[in-house]
UniProtKB/TrEMBL annotation, chain A:
Subunit structure, interactors included: The basal body constitutes a major portion of the flagellar organelle and consists of four rings (L,P,S, and M) mounted on a central rod. The rod consists of about 26 subunits of FlgG in the distal portion, and FlgB, FlgC and FlgF are thought to build up the proximal portion of the rod with about 6 subunits each.
Stored PANTHER family: FLAGELLAR BASAL-BODY ROD PROTEIN FLGC, FLAGELLAR PROTEIN
Protein name as it appears in the record: Flagellar basal-body rod protein FlgC
Stored Pfam families: Flg_bb_rod, Flg_bbr_C
Keyword Oxidoreductase found: no
Assigned GO CC terms: bacterial-type flagellum basal body, rod
Organism: Bradyrhizobium arachidis
Domain Flagellar basal-body/hook protein C-terminal: 94-137
Entry's localization field: Bacterial flagellum basal body
Keyword line: Bacterial flagellum, Cell projection, Cilium, Flagellum
GO BP terms: bacterial-type flagellum-dependent swarming motility
Encoding gene, per UniProt annotation: flgC
Domain Flagellar basal body rod protein N-terminal per the UniProt entry, residue ranges: 13-39
NCBIfam families named in the record: FlgC
Entry similarity comment: Belongs to the flagella basal body rod proteins family.
UniProtKB/TrEMBL annotation, chain B:
Name this protein carries in UniProt: Flagellar basal body rod protein FlgB
Entry's family note: Belongs to the flagella basal body rod proteins family.
Record organism: Bradyrhizobium arachidis
Annotated function: Structural component of flagellum, the bacterial motility apparatus. Part of the rod structure of flagellar basal body.
Region of interest (Disordered), ranges: 24-43, 69-91
């Protein structure tokens, strides 16, 4: 087991891994939102496919603690939206254009969720910092 | 007799260590608040006797090493009892972390730690007064 005195440092490192994972999730979400209307360049081709971030809990051996990591970013297998736009260059022979399977409402709720989790991790860091400060205050008295 | 052998100081030190370790456990819970199948954990509060030693709780059982070539298990080994009953609200993904509850726990942990540290420095101050340096 790691040295007891580094427990606060470990708390901070664990919370930092949470921050990193949520920031990565935010990046994927912003990619989805930015590409909400990206159609294919070729006629009848597939447009942008929504990406879903995954999280996994892993044991960090240097920290000796369970940290969170952003796992594989997987494609969402749901169906594309189809619109009838015969004049669109991306339209297939029947005049239908495939649009990405991105739902902006879902992305927005996901974004709020990521934001909340990020703030929770930040709170843990500031709480831990206050606790370290209290420990140092013993020396001052 | 060293200064740390005083019952008050040793009890407070154990309590501070417990808060430190609990902070780590809570931080694990919060950072894994979106990990599928993750179950939150918590620590059981230590009971201290008059001499400041921990009583009434059985520490985690250590793994027995039956051969010198065995490796000791790595992982979040804790010197305090774990409370496995934490978390009752499980989401469809199998994650049982309740962020609000964890934040409340972190806040109370921080406040209790602040109380323990001020008691510790007060006790030190008392000692200083006793030896005529206060």
């Amino acid at each position: 087991m790691a040295n007891d005195s580094s427990d606060f440092a470990r708390s901070m490192a664990i919370a930092t891994s949470g921050l990193r994972a949520q920031a990565g999730r935010m990046r994927v979400i912003s990619e989805n939102i930015a590409n909400a209307d990206s159609t294919s360049q070729t006629s009848g081709g597939d447009p942008y496919r929504r990406k879903v971030p995954t999280f996994s809990s892993a044991l960090d051996r240097t920290l000796d603690a369970q940290v969170v990591t952003l796992g594989k970013i997987k494609p969402d297998q749901s169906n594309f939206r189809v619109k009838y736009e015969p004049n669109n260059p991306a339209a297939d022979a029947t005049g239908n254009v495939k649009y990405p399977n991105v739902n902006s409402v879902v992305e927005m709720t996901d974004m709020r969720d990521a934001q909340r989790s990020y703030e929770a991790n930040l709170n843990i860091i500031s709480a831990t910092r206050r606790m370290i400060q209290r420990t140092l205050d013993i020396l001052k008295s | 007799m060293s200064i740390n052998d005083l019952p008050v100081l040793s009890a407070l030190r154990t309590k501070m260590q417990w808060h430190q370790e609990r902070q780590r456990v809570l931080s694990e819970n919060v950072s894994n608040s979106d990990t599928p199948k993750f179950r939150p954990r918590d620590l059981v509060e230590p009971k201290l006797d008059k001499s400041g030693a921990v009583t009434g709780s059985m520490g985690p059982l250590a793994m027995t090493v039956t051969s010198a070539s065995h490796m000791t298990p790595s992982g979040a080994a804790s010197s305090f009892d774990q409370n496995k009953n934490a978390g009752f609200e499980t989401r469809p993904a199998g994650n049982a972390v309740n962020l609000e509850e964890e934040m409340m726990k972190a806040a109370s942990n921080q406040m209790d730690y602040a109380a323990a540290t001020s008691l510790y420095s007060k006790s030190l101050h008392l000692l200083k007064t006793a030896i005529g340096k206060g």
